[in-house]
Amino acid sequence: MVDPGRETQYTESDVIEVFRDRSDYAEPLTASEVAEALGCSRRTALNRLHDLQEETDVTSKKVGGRSRVWWIPVRMDE
């Protein structure tokens, strides 16, 4: 049983699925959009995104004073 007040654990795979399940694969997402898709807090989504950036191809870019967007680069075969 999960302790009251404890948030469900979300895996990096759960976050990757958010990126893959979109109609526009190239559109970047905010941490808030990832959180909404997962049904978790923005902080939880942000933590998973930071983990993914260190371990996978997930990339981010600042787009304002405190705003950041995240995406998986689309690789084109040469």
TrEMBL record:
SUPFAM superfamilies assigned to the protein according to its UniProt record, in alphabetical order: Winged helix' DNA-binding domain (SSF46785)
InterPro entries per the UniProt record, alphabetical: HTH_11 (IPR013196), WH-like_DNA-bd_sf (IPR036388), WH_DNA-bd_sf (IPR036390)
Coiled-coil residue windows: none
Source organism superkingdom: Archaea
Transmembrane regions listed in the UniProt entry: none
The Helix-turn-helix type domain, residue ranges: 27-61
The protein's name: HTH domain-containing protein
